[in-house]
Amino acid sequence: MVKSVIAQHVTKVYRMYQSTSQRLLDLLLPLRTGEEFYALRDVSFEADKGDVIGIVGLNGSGKSTLCNIIAGVIQPTAGEIHVDGQTSLVAIQAGLSTELTGRENIEQKCLMLGFSKKEIRELESEIVEFADIGPFIDQPVKNYSSGMRSRLGFAISVCVDPDVLVVDEALSVGDAVFSAKCMDKMNDFKRRGKTIFFISHSMAQVKSFCEKALWLDRGVVRAYGDVASVVPEYERFVKQNRASAP
User: Which CATH superfamily is domain 3-85+163-244 in?
Assistant: First the structure.
């Protein structure tokens, strides 16, 4: 099988500062002040072309950090990640400038992805139609609801036809009709052999849409494999976690 994503010992460390002055001091002098927080620790996995992978885990487990690294939004502190082809991240506000209009954001994001002005003009009508936010397309994004931002971000990300699609909780906002429209588009990508990473707290969605699952727990891979084996194990963990909570 052709590998579309290979992650090798990926680690992401952030520094937690007690004050702005401590942060500035750390920038000016190599004192390494501030407490280290490991968002990801030694994460390794491989995805084949055409894999549809659900990324599951409790809040704060590192799911969004991993998605941002796969999409090239941030770089790992250590380790390497190799992606074959163009990646597109679908997340609320991902890559959107709040001061620009929706139409201006389409142009800006497509330019960043390497599209020419001519190609953008050809894509624009398809993106606008898919987003279906009416006259708001020519209003600043700062005036959008979270649902409209999600609509625009999803429309841009899927209409540029990426090789690897990363969906980070983008379907948790907006109406049921648009969510169904998004799932139809992602199922089309699935039929065409695209690689998809899908974050959702809905295990029903993960079970029905994904073939594999990657379970993260406090930045560490707890399990990676078929949905049928990983998700039930994760669900038992969640149930036990809730039962032991005060």
Answer: P-loop containing nucleotide triphosphate hydrolases (3.40.50.300)
Show the tokens assigned to 48: 């084949």
How far apart CA 134 and CA 187 sit, in angstroms, is: 25
The per-residue DSSP string of 199-232 comes to E-S-HHHHHHH-SEEEEEETTEEEEEEEHHHHHH
pLDDT at position 92, please?
Answer: 61
Mean pLDDT across 187-212: 92
Residue type, 227: V
Residue for token pair 């038992």: 236
**Contact 151/136 with Cβ under 8 angstroms?**
no
Count of helix runs (H) and strand runs (E) in the chain:
8, 9
Give 73's contacts (C-beta < 8 A, 6+ positions apart).
Answer: 89, 94
Q: Where are the domains of the chain?
A: 3-85+163-244, 92-160
Q: Does position 167 have pLDDT exceeding 80, yes or no?
A: yes
- Highest-confidence segment of 48-62, 82-96, 155-169: 48-62
Say which amino acid occupies 204. Answer: A
Percent of the chain past pLDDT 90, that is, above it, reads: 61
Other beta carbons within 10 angstroms of residue 110's beta carbon come to 21
Q: What is the DSSP string of 16-66?
A: E-SSHHHHHHHHHSTT--SEEEEEEEEEEEEEETT-EEEEE--TTSSHHHH
Q: Residue 15: which pLDDT band, with cuts at 50, 70 and 90?
A: confident
pTM: 0.85
